[in-house]
Protein: Transcriptional regulator, TetR family
Organism: Desulfoluna spongiiphila
Amino acid sequence: MAVEETKTNILDAAESFFAEMGFHATSLRQITERAGVNVASVNYHFGSKENLMDAVLRRRLEPLNVIRLARLEAVKAEAAEAGKTPSVRAVMVALINPTLRAVVQPEFGGFSMIMSRIFTEHKGAIMERVRPLIEPLLDRYLDVLYEALPNLPREEVALRLRMSLGAMQHAIHAVRGYQTDSGPMALTTALPEEVVVDSLIDFVTRGMEDL
């Protein structure tokens, strides 16, 4: 088996188990059995289960963050060219549109569950591993939102963004729950992805501006 194929198989298996069982309940032996490799392969390529979790997170978040930051820079450039402050809606579109469209894809299914576990279980060590991949991105978005909402205290803007992220997480679960038939019907939606994205953006924009 080629090196990259081995690493991909390990990452796929780890992502699946971390989603199904959580990080702490998953053993390296379970991962290696599903990946068709031995424990030595995991240690060779990743060093530890903790480093493997880092790799799982980076594989999904780093490419997505590149897109989200590029979208934010485009919003800032367009506003500057027009001599205006970026609108709240444009900022939220830049954040939510690529996020929701990416994570509802089948290959993101397990990763979406991992992120949900991290933010609901609040396991300290794992949360600390995801912070460097999320907080710099959110800080960049907050800087622009502070400018777009100058009459609100910064603490209030940050709180509203956190609530908006919570709404986005629920929207992700609503779409994925319907796709996989894994959630209560009252909490899932059969609406097309683009309708969910537009509705969510309307919802969080009003919340950011008018709460």
Observations:
- The mean pLDDT is 88.
